[in-house]
Amino acid sequence: MIELSVEFHKKLVDNFQASLNEMGEQGSRKLISMVLNHQGRIALTAVKRYLAQTTGIAYNAISKSVVEHKSSLVNLTYRIVGTGGPTNLRDYKPYSGASSFSAAPWGERRQFPRTFQVGGSGPLAGFVMHRGPGGAREPIDFSYGPDLAREMAHKECIAAFNDSIEKTFMPEIRRQLTRRLGVESMPLVEPTEPSEPSS
Questions:
Q1: Is-contact 31 180, C-beta < 8 A?
Q2: pLDDT, tens digit, for every residue of 125-184?
Q3: Are 54 and 105 in contact, with CB atoms under 8 Å apart?
Q4: Residue 150 contacts by C-beta under 8 Å, 6 or more apart in sequence?
Q5: 26-45 pLDDT, tens digit each
Q6: Could you give the residue ranges of the DSSP H alpha helices within the chain?
Q7: Angle at alpha carbon of residue 56, lines to 118 and 36, rounded to 5°
Q8: How many other CB atoms are found less than 10 A from the CB of residue 168?
Q9: For the whole model, what pTM was predicted?
Q10: Which H helix or E strand runs over 4?
Q11: CA within 20 to 30 Å of 78's CA: 52, 110, 111, 136, which one?
C-alpha cells in the first residue's frame, strides 16, 4: 500500500487565529476541509491520468485500487491510498479471438497463451483466467496485470501528484482564506512525504 497526502498545518490556524475566530472554530475547519477535498480531487485526477497512461488500465477501473480518504472537521488531511495487489487483465482492453487471447497491460498489446475470459453472469464473469501448460487437467488461476500501488510509488507518479498540489492546491487554499477572511497573505500548506508501499 502507498499513500499520498496533503495536510493543513495547524500553524496556519495559529498564525491567523484572530481572523479565524470570526468564523468560529467549526466554520473555519469546515472551510479548510472543503478546500482540501475539492483540490485534493484535482490531484487524484492527475494520479489517475498518470496510471491510465503508463499502465494502459481503463480509467474507470482505477477506483478499484486507488481510493480517496476525504478531509473532515476532525482530521484536516486529504489522502490518496493505493491498495496492494495486482489488477486483472480484464481491465486492459482484452480481446478473445478464435484461438487466441490478447490484452494491453502497460499500453502494449500482446498474446497470452492458455488464457481466456470467463463468460456468463456468475461472480467470475468478465475475469481473465489462465491454465497451466498441461492442458485441461491443469488448475486455472487469475491472469494479472500491473500492481497500481507499486506504480504509484514511482517517482513520476509522485511528481504528478506534487505538481498538481503546487499549481492548484496551495493557491486555492490561499485564495479562499484570503477572500473569506480578508487576510492579504497566508502561509502555504505543504504536501507530506508519501509512505513506502508495503510488501
A1: yes
A2: 999 998 877 766 667 889 999 999 999 999 999 999 988 887 877 677 677 777 876 655
A3: no
A4: 2, 197
A5: 887 888 888 889 889 999 99
A6: 10-15, 17-23, 25-55, 148-152, 155-164, 170-181
A7: 110
A8: 15
A9: 0.76
A10: strand 2-7
A11: 52
